[in-house]
Amino acid sequence: MANRSCLLYAFLLLVALQSSMIMANTVIHTPQCRPVAASSKDKILFSMNLLIYKAEFFLRASVGVGINGISPGLVQGPVPIGATLANITNSARRVIEELGLATVGHLRAIVNVTLLRAPLPRPQLNFTAGVFANILNLSALTPPFNVYGGQTQFFLVAEPLTSLIQYYLAQVIPSIAGIPQQQLVTGIGLNAAAQHGYFRTRLNAIVNITVPPYTITVASFTNTTATAVNLLDCAPRTELPPTSYRVMSIPYHPDRTERETLRILHGTGNATRPGGIFPSGPNGTLYRLVIVPLRLS
Ligand SMILES: *[C@@H]1O[C@H](CO)[C@@H](O)[C@H](O)[C@H]1NC(C)=O
Ligand SMILES: *[C@@H]1O[C@H](CO)[C@@H](O)[C@H](O)[C@H]1NC(C)=O
Ligand SMILES: *[C@@H]1O[C@H](CO)[C@@H](O)[C@H](O)[C@H]1NC(C)=O
Ligand SMILES: *[C@@H]1O[C@H](CO)[C@@H](O)[C@H](O)[C@H]1NC(C)=O
Ligand SMILES: *[C@@H]1O[C@H](CO)[C@@H](O)[C@H](O)[C@H]1NC(C)=O
Ligand SMILES: *[C@@H]1O[C@H](CO)[C@@H](O)[C@H](O)[C@H]1NC(C)=O
Ligand SMILES: *[C@@H]1O[C@H](CO)[C@@H](O)[C@H](O)[C@H]1NC(C)=O
Ligand SMILES: *[C@@H]1O[C@H](CO)[C@@H](O)[C@H](O)[C@H]1NC(C)=O
């Protein structure tokens, strides 16, 4: 067990080091997508919403327990809707569990460094299979696309979801004030990049294989999901399907603002109209700044 963890983390670290995801791009944003002028603490608290959804999703899909089942009293709020165990191999289950546990560790570290008091506010989360199918434009399939139905289906969802967190943190890291806070968010960002790399690598290895029960290849699926994410995001952007470039050869690291991230997670293409994974929106001051009417000057 210890050996397996060491190997996994050695692998994840390797992927992270090969990525230079910390470099933020300079992009001109429209008002609907521009970064929110918020304090470092509020940005960290916004990230916390993303980490809570990732930890809840991975833990519930792999071992059927939530964050509080691992770390009692760490979060408080409505119970996520629609989570269920995913039909994946035992070895994948252990990896997904580890990624969830690592994320719980990051939530604890946030509590420690920001001197927040647990329980952290957990937003309402909707993990119903249809939510992921809608966000990724896979809802027209027969049978309906079910993230929990098979391992490749799970990876096809986990890949873009982990990339979202990586790209948001890449955007926010340069603006975080305070050395412990910078170190904290950078560490979480590196780990997010490594987790994304894990799913990308797994999908790359099976890029030409069809995804049961469909006759559609992984390449074609990732093409659809990347296009869907692109369209929810602020165009024009060139989200490449994870299988269209070789891992570790082309550095491809976009960054995303809070608003861009929400347009995707809400599944509405609108940061101020909640839905999708966050039916009531995320918690915290930063989101309240997002939903105040935009001044277009
Ligand atoms: C909490 O933070 C302090 C420094 O701020 C650090 O020394 C300690 O290891 C941290 N504990 C945990 C559990 O992260
Ligand atoms: C967080 O959001 C949920 C709804 O998503 C709400 O029920 C809860 O009260 C909020 N918590 C705080 C502290 O704002
Ligand atoms: C959760 O998502 C499902 C599928 O999209 C939807 O039918 C349901 O209304 C959502 N629940 C909430 C509380 O948003
Ligand atoms: C679980 O996945 C396996 C392997 O992909 C598949 O053969 C089986 O039909 C799936 N079970 C369910 C209940 O979907
Ligand atoms: C997938 O198919 C393409 C085109 O036939 C080929 O170039 C590529 O090496 C294949 N990739 C894998 C991982 O099998
Ligand atoms: C990906 O989508 C584009 C545009 O819809 C299409 O031209 C291309 O052939 C697709 N590639 C694959 C592998 O499906
Ligand atoms: C969604 O996918 C369908 C194919 O299933 C495609 O025809 C359509 O253009 C896609 N829509 C978007 C917005 O990507
Ligand atoms: C986004 O959603 C808000 C709240 O529902 C709405 O007032 C606004 O018109 C929407 N914006 C667009 C561009 O659809």
Short description:
This protein is mostly helical and 297 residues long. 52% of the residues lie in helices and 1% in strands.
Overall SS class: mainly alpha
Low-confidence stretches: 10-25, 245-253
How is the largest sheet built, in terms of strand order? Answer: 1-2
- Main pleated-sheet profile: 2 strands, parallel
Bound compounds, each kind once, are: 2-acetamido-2-deoxy-beta-D-glucopyranose
| Estimated radius of gyration | 18 Å
Care to count the β-strands? 2
Strand fraction equals under 5%
Mean pLDDT: 86
Distance between the termini: 57 Å
What is the N-to-C order of secondary-structure elements (H for helix, E for strand)? HHHEHEHHHHHH
Helical segment count: 10
Percent range of helical residues:
40-55%
What is the approximate shape?
globular
Q: Which key phrases capture this entry?
A:
297 residues; two-stranded parallel ribbon; mainly alpha; 2 strands; single chain; binds 2-acetamido-2-deoxy-beta-D-glucopyranose; 10 helices; 1% strand
Characterization of this structure:
The chain is mainly alpha-helical and 297 residues long. It has ten helices and two strands, in the order αααβαβαααααα. It has helices at residues 2-18, 40-62, 67-70, 90-114, 129-135, 151-172, 179-205, 218-232, 258-265, 285-291; strands spanning 75-76, 120-121. A two-stranded parallel sheet has the order 1-2. α4 (90-114) links the parallel β1 and β2 (120-121). Bound molecules: 2-acetamido-2-deoxy-beta-D-glucopyranose (8 copies).
